[in-house]
DNA sequence: CTATAAACGAGACGGTACGTCATGTCTTATT
DNA sequence: AATAAGACATGACGTACCGTCTCGTTTATAG
C-alpha cells in the first residue's frame, strides 16, 4: 500500500519551519541561511532541499502559519470590525518574522511568477478572507448595500483590501510608526467617511 | 585650500549609480552584486566601497533619483490631483529598479536604524511632499477645511500619505495587479467619499 | 537445513561485478560511485553493502576475474614464453578497468592491511602463477638449472615476477608507452642476457 | 612594470605544498581533502583553487619536490651505481607521501592527458635523469659499449629505466616487501647478467 | 620641481554560504 | 532474512561574493 522507501518524518517539517522562524527573529531575512536553519532544526541541509526548493519557498511556508491565526470576531459594527482587523494585522506585521519577511518575499516575487502565486495562496488570500467576511457581516447589519453584480463586488472588495492592508503595511514598515489605537481610529474614520468634508458631498 | 591628494572624479558617482540601476533592471535586487556593479561601471570594487558602505546604501542612492521626478501638476481639483499622483507613483513602482528595490530596502531597514533614516530622507519624504502640496492646493480651492492645529494637520497628512502610498504599493506589488485608470478612479472615490453609503453618515 | 529467510539471489553478485566493470570503463576509478553501480546493476544500495564492505573490496572482486584469464601456452622456449606472458599482461593492463584500477587499489592498500591481502590473494598471486609455471617448464627444457634450496628458488621467482610485472606495468602506465612486439623482444633479451656486454661477464 | 593588482604571497605556495605532504602522511591520498589542506596551511580554499586546479595538480607539485632530492653519487662501478639508485628510489617510495600518491596519480592520469604530462615532467623525468647519467658514467668506465644510433640508445635507456623503476615499484608497493640490501644485490645481478645461466648465451 | 597624499585599477586574500553529490546507515513495505 | 525504495546525517565539492588588503600608477596640492 504505502509507497516504497522510508517515509519522511512528518515532525521534521514543523521543526524546520519553527527553526526558520527562529532564525528570522534572530538574524532577519537577509542573514538567514539554509545552513543555519538546518543546524537549528537538527537536520541535514539535504533534508531541507528535499522538502523546499530554496530560501523563498521555505520562508513562505514558515511565515504562512502566522497568517492563519488572523480572525475577525464580530465587534458589532463595521467600524469596530475594521479597527479589529487593522490592529490584528498590525500586530502581525510588527513581528520581525512576519513583516520584513513579507516585504522581502514580495520584492523577490516581482521576478518570480511561481513565488508570486505561492505568496498569494499562502499569505495574501488568508488576509483577504477577513475583508470578505467583514463585508458580509456589514451587509447583514445593513451597513453596506447589496451589490448585485458579483464582479463589481469583487473589485470593490479587492480595493478595500488593498487600502486597508496597504495602509497598515505602509504605516508600520515604510513610515515605521506605530499602528496604535489612535491611528487605527482615524484611519477607520477616513476609510468609512472619506477625506472630503461632509458638506462637499453629492 | 583643497585637500591634498588626488580628488575623486565626480562623474564616477553617477556612473556607478547608473550601473546600479542597470543591474537592478537586469538582475533584480537579490542577484545584484557589488562586483557586478563595479564591472558595469568600469570601476574597481575599492572605489565602490570608498563611496558607499554597502549594497543597501548604494541602492538607496541609485533609486532615490527616480523619486525626484515625481511631480504634481495642478489638474484643477483634489480628485484629479489624487488621480495624477496615484498614476505617477504607480508608474514608478512598476519599474523593476524602483518597486522591488524599495520593498527590499524597507525589509532590510527593519533591522537597521541608519538605513531606515536614509530611506526616509532620500525616498519617502520625496513622495510625501506631493501629499503636502496637494493638500495645500485643495485648501486654496476650498475643497479642504483649514486645520488650525499644525500637529493634527501633520497627523492627517501622514495618514493620507500612508493610505495613498500604501494602497498603490499593495495593489501594484503585493496583489500584483495593474494600477490603471479604472482602479485609480474608484480608489480616489473611496478616498474622498469613504466606504459608507451617503445616507449612513452623521 | 537452509537458513531461515529469503536466500540471496546468486546471479546478483555477478550482475553487480559486471556493472562495476562497466562503470570503471566508462567513468574510471575516481568517478565510480556505489550509487551508480547499484543503479547499473538494477539493485538497491543496501544490497551492495550487504555483500561488499565498500568500493575497494567491490572493485577487487570485479577486477580479479580479469586476471583469471591469464594463461601460459607453451611456446617452446623460455624466451618465447616470457614474451607471451608479457604481451598478455600488457593487454590486460591496457584495459581501462584493469590497469588503472589495479594501481589505485594498490595505492589504497598501502594504508589498509586487509585490502593488501585481498589484492594479493585475488590478483597478484594469479599473475605469479604464470612465472612459477614458466620456470618449471624452462627447467624441464634444461633452460634453467634446478635450484635445490626451495627458499632461494622462491626468492628468485619473486624477483623475476617483480621485474617482469614491474617493467610492464611501468612501461604501460607510468611511462604510458605501448608494450608492443618490439619492446617485448628487447625486454626479454635484457631479462635473459642482462645489460652487460657478453664479454664483460665473469 | 610589475603586473597590476596585489601580488601573490610567494611563501604561501610552499606552505600549501608542505601542508599537502603533511596531509598525505596523516590521511593518505584517498582521504586528503582540499578543505583540510587549506585549514592546515592557514589559507582559504579559494587561494588553493586560485593556484591549483584541483587535488591532482596540487599533489603532483607537492610530491615532485621529493623527487628532486634523488642523486647519483659515483660509486665506482655500474653495479654499485645501480644498487645506489635502487636503494634511493626505494627509500622514496617507502615514504607514505610519495609511493602511494604516485600510484594514485598515475592511475588517475590514465584518463587525463594533461595530468599525464604533468607527472612525466615533474616526477618521472627527474628519475630518468639518473639512468641517463649512470649509463654515461658506465660508458666512460668502459662498462657499456658506445651506441652510435641515438634513437636506439634512447630506447635502451627507456627500457632500462622501466625495468629498474618498475621492479622497485612493484616490489615495494605491489608485492609490499622490503627493498633491502639483499634484494637490491640480486636484482642488480639479474639486471646486469640476465636470467640465463652463463653457458646458455650465444 | 619635488614631495606627499589621496584616488584609482587590479587582483590576492580569509571568510562564508551556496546547492549538489556520495557516503554508509536507517526505516518502510514487499517478497 | 533478503530486497527495492528512498529518507537521512555527514561532510567535501568547486563556485561565487563579501569586504579588506596590498600593490603600482595617476593626479592633485603644498613646500
From TrEMBL, chains A, B, C, D:
InterPro entries: Homeodomain-like_sf, HTH-type_TetR-like_transc_reg, HTH_TetR, Tet_transcr_reg_TetR-rel_C_sf, TetR_C. It holds the Pfam family TetR_N. Residues 10-70 form the HTH tetR-type domain. Transmembrane segments: none annotated. It comes from the Bacteria. PROSITE patterns: HTH_TETR_2. Keywords: DNA-binding, Transcription, Transcription regulation. Residues 33-52 bind DNA. SUPFAM superfamilies: Homeodomain-like (SSF46689), Tetracyclin repressor-like, C-terminal domain (SSF48498). PANTHER family: HTH-TYPE TRANSCRIPTIONAL REGULATOR RUTR (PTHR30055), TRANSCRIPTIONAL REGULATORY PROTEIN (PROBABLY TETR-FAMILY)-RELATED (PTHR30055:SF230). This is TetR/AcrR family transcriptional regulator. It comes from Streptomyces hebeiensis. The lineage of its organism: Bacteria, Bacillati, Actinomycetota, Actinomycetes, Kitasatosporales.
Amino acid at each position: 500500500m504505502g509507497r516504497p522507501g522510508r517515509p519522511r518524518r512528518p515532525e521534521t517539517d514543523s521543526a524546520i519551519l519553527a527553526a526558520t522562524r527562529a532564525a528570522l527573529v534572530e538574524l532577519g531575512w537577509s542573514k538567514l541561511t539554509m545552513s543555519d536553519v538546518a543546524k537549528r532544526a537538527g537536520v541535514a541541509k539535504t533534508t531541507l532541499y528535499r522538502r523546499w526548493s530554496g530560501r523563498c519557498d521555505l520562508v513562505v511556508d514558515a511565515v504562512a502559519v502566522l497568517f492563519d491565526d488572523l480572525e475577525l470576531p464580530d465587534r458589532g459594527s463595521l467600524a469596530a470590525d475594521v479597527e479589529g482587523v487593522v490592529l490584528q494585522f498590525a500586530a502581525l506585521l510588527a513581528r520581525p518574522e512576519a513583516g520584513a519577511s513579507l516585504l522581502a518575499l514580495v520584492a523577490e516575487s516581482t521576478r518570480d511568477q511561481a513565488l508570486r502565486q505561492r505568496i498569494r495562496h499562502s499569505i495574501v488570500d488568508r488576509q483577504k478572507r477577513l475583508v470578505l467576511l467583514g463585508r458580509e457581516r456589514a451587509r447583514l447589519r445593513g451597513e453596506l448595500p447589496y451589490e448585485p453584480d458579483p464582479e463589481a463586488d469583487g473589485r470593490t472588495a479587492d480595493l478595500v483590501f488593498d487600502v486597508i492592508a496597504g495602509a497598515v503595511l505602509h504605516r508600520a514598515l515604510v513610515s515605521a510608526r506605530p499602528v496604535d489605537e489612535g491611528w487605527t481610529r482615524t484611519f477607520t474614520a477616513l476609510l468609512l467617511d472619506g477625506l472630503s468634508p461632509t458638506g462637499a458631498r453629492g
